[in-house]
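If you are new to this repository, start here. Below is one unmodified record pulled from the training split, so you can see the exact layout before writing a loader.
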Amino acid sequence: MQWYTGNTFYDTLLIVGFLYALMIFVSSFYGTAAYGGRFGGGGAKSKGIKLGSKPGWILMELPGLIVFPIVFFMGENSNQIVPLFFLAIWMFHYTNRALVTPLLMRTAPGASQTFAFNVVVAGWITLFMHGYFNAEYIANIGTQYTTEWFSDPRFIIGIAIYAFGFTLNVYSDTILRNLRSKKPDPSEPRYKIPFGGFFKWVSCPQYLGEILSFTGFAIMTWNLGAVFVLAITVGNLAPRAMVTHKWFLKNFDDYPKERKALIPYIW
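And here is the target side for that same chain:
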């Protein structure tokens, strides 16, 4: 099927990708992905293979650092400055996601293994498609990535949104991480109310930052492969934000009632 690029394999797989994103969104109404303390599906006692937070997260995100550069350097335009800039953005982003963020996690000794292996597999599927779609388009299919692209309004707006979203994500993660001691004691409360930054307005600014990052990437690269992962991200994180928001309201009597789940003043 040729409907976007003229490349039958690419265009057909892109349709499959968007159908997969729709499935993720629909399934989110019946339960969020089983990773994280509030979402781990019962912890180590539940069925299926479970991993610790750090190894689970690293294993899930690692294809992001592998697939994109392999496909990228097979492209005819892989030596051009604009595609190389996008490669740098990608590697910067996924080094943070796959290595920096999980390695900085603070977990108590003997903490339950709650990261479901099926979530790792789902992450692999997403990242293999995400990496292929974007690397193939940026380094091989796309024809707009001349040096003039750096002055295109789409690039300027996109990079600005990406920078804001990435900063918001990292800063919010830092606030959450600092709620725990560097070496948490098993008796230390696992959850506390976060304050500071965008936590003034929403319960999950780290999710908002991630969504904005991929929004910016989709705009600055202007290709549907980037829209695919934005759809996956929204379908996964928006329901998690609502579940998190309701959980805090239920479990903390002094939780700020004016906070929204994900979008300041709106939702």
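Two things worth knowing about this chain: Residues 224-251 form the longest helix (28 residues). The longest strand covers residues 50-51.
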